[in-house]
């Protein structure tokens, strides 16, 4: 009908409010909490930083070039000003193409949601849903309510972003930390996805300990956390555990953490004073907080104490995932373990890597007895950037069988479950297949003596691991990335010993890290060279 068509056209003619604020977009902002050189849209850059820029690497920022009309952020430098200044303009940009998008009313396309990772349990379900020639991606509802889109809250974020303070009903989640000196300041907000650990000194008085808020558990859990910024949905902070520390330092885990223990004076001691708090926040993949828990360490303070040291920590975990310790973000940090894993057997496709027991690459751990058979199962993690060597001694008798001995030594060198892959970055996720480097395994055998073929066997005596890595990314903040790992097993010939004779052979494991980064080419290589012969006394009287 005509009236229905006219109403639909009227809804289309009223342009919806932009979903993306181009003034907040910045594709050249690569460093967290640091100013990127010549990145004029970097919010971390100050006026002093802009005065040192030579150009704007990204002069124009737009949200979606397929839209018919949208805002564009234009950046430039006023080099004639003293000092030079950044100029920012927000203009309306019209798409000249007749084939353009007027309204983005498909809400599911406005944000990236992490896809469900296929596992052995949900593989059949996902195959039924997506295994056909086509599948439905129909949204639950189409939103054509332009009045709602034009509301003042259209541009407000509906999720937490990295580094944004975790909001509570009264202000923000406090994570006390030292500011200027070592004394505690309660004005430090906890940033979303920013794992922190702080220690600071708190001034106390035993006579007034029950009135000092920072010594009470209520101070850290009485404010509920907002599930998303500026929302009415609250998440209460639950008490996960309570550990009581005595005056001499002995700690006891309480069986029940339901009842709050408030500070009080008893026999010239202030008991139940908060010495440490460990927050654990659980969030969704879209940036919504769904759970919050706090673990407390309570202790006793003597009358003589004028101050105490408090420790605070906060960590974040995505729901339905197991927390995996990282070794860098993104590049490896020297001294942290090299992360490793293996691909499960029979997996329908290479979509995930399951970590080994400790999610680390390990080598033989040397023991005080130096006995290889006693050292079986003792492993030491391979630390990035540290060349390592370890070993043991094997006492061989004439009664030992060759094949069982060779398998035992192989288990000693490689461990019970030697990984197949190594994470290229310190924060590589299991589902990111391209972020895992396969371990190349080589076997080298020493030349066998011809007359000993009938009474000898091959046994492994050494494992050598070479890790090749390179500097990745910006020269200002290069990240360590592993590009190749080779594990070489060296075997030797063991001749049959006469009855009653023994022999001791050394077994060794080693790890070496090799930097294969290409050196940065200096700018002067672009200068022209002049081939000229100077007079022999040109530098006289200098040599």
UniProtKB/TrEMBL annotation:
User: Which residues lie within the region annotated Disordered?
Assistant: 138-159
This chain's protein is named TECT1 protein
Q: Which organism is it from?
A: Cardinalis cardinalis (Northern cardinal)
State which gene encodes it. Answer: Tctn1
Q: Which UniProt keywords apply?
A: Cilium biogenesis/degradation, Glycoprotein, Signal
Family to which this protein belongs: Belongs to the tectonic family.
Q: How does it assemble?
A: Part of the tectonic-like complex (also named B9 complex).
The chain positions of domain Tectonic-1-3 read: 158-318, 328-515
Give the Tectonic-1-3 N-terminal domain ranges. 9-123
> Alphabetically, which GO biological process terms does the record hold?
cilium assembly; protein localization to ciliary transition zone
> Would you name any one GO CC term?
MKS complex
Source lineage: Eukaryota, Metazoa, Chordata, Craniata, Vertebrata
Listed Polar residues bias regions: 143-157
